[in-house]
Predict the structure.
Amino acid sequence: MSTPVPSIEQLQELGLPAPVSYWPQTWGWGVLLGVAVLGVLILAARRWLRWRRDAYRREALARLNALQDMRELPELLKRVALSMPLAAEERQRVPTLSGADWQAFLQRHAGAPVPADLSQRLGALAYGTASADAHLLAQCKAWVEHHHVAA
């Protein structure tokens, strides 16, 4: 006995499943989405504020890269120090810093160790008793790039 082969006329169309909403079914997913969006907004705001706060650093690095007369290097470092977001008392002291006090300031705000004679070399350069070399310029660039300010 053979089974009859179904014909094409006997085929029936299958029904479609009920539509499923893409909207979350519980309020927990909404809260999670809200927290995630809030976190992204906070991170974006912090990055934007940091970018704005470091505008003086970007400008100083651009001036360092375009520096023609190396005798301007000590003045540029003082300008960077004055532009840093410091406490009012410390900012008022920056223009008068020299010698060991200037060296201590540079070391205190440096992101990496500063050579012990950096302030002396900068002073000699400012008064024309020494010439700048590529190593001094690289040290100054590193200080500008990596100095930190206690918030």
About this structure: The two ends are 92 Å apart (CA to CA). The chain has seven helices and no strands. The chain has a mean pLDDT of 90.
